Amino acid sequence: MLSCELHTHSKLSHDGRDPVDLLVEQADAVGLDALAVTDHDEIEASLEAAELAEERGMVGIPGIEVTSRAGHILGLGVDEQIQPGLPYENTLNLIRDAGGIAVIPHPFQEARHGVMANITLDQLAMADAIEVYNSRLLTGRANRQAKRFAQENGLPMVAGSDAHISEMVGQARTLIDATERSVPSILDAIRAGGTEIDGKRTPWRISFRQLAGGVSRRIQRRLAFFG
To answer: Is the pTM of this model over 0.85?
Structure first.
């Protein structure tokens, strides 16, 4: 089983803090076999992180978190920009056309751009996999809803730290029964449901720091834009 981190953000995301080298360094330090950097609507840092991960003997999974019209969708295994702002099903298809798999992160956390604010359960079932454990949880209720839905619909399940600072990389891992250490093998194993969840809650102080830092960075960028 490969220990994989499938949901992280670098400073290229509007709410991320750290450069990719720190994320890769942390992934290596905590013993991950594979890492995906999934910035909001940006691909460049993910491609850089994938190269750096390979240099350290890990599998670098290129990816992106796309802001669809319905909410956030992870594209794992894509190495090109996916246009944001499109309808839910269009976004799923674009990710697949780019050679990736479409994973729905925190679907029932509507305050965090979870898609269930805008789609039906039937549409949610169209995804390739569901993130059933997101470390940035409040009560755990939304994670339990996601897991129950995935189980009832026979959908593959993954976990993600949703780390916006390097210290939280590896907080939630997906253990993947891949036949080899490669991106195609990892994606195939996820599609086939060959996964196990290994997750820990992000400490409250870290969650607050991530939230406060993201708000501060957004304000600074807006001031710089209008200045």
So the answer is: yes
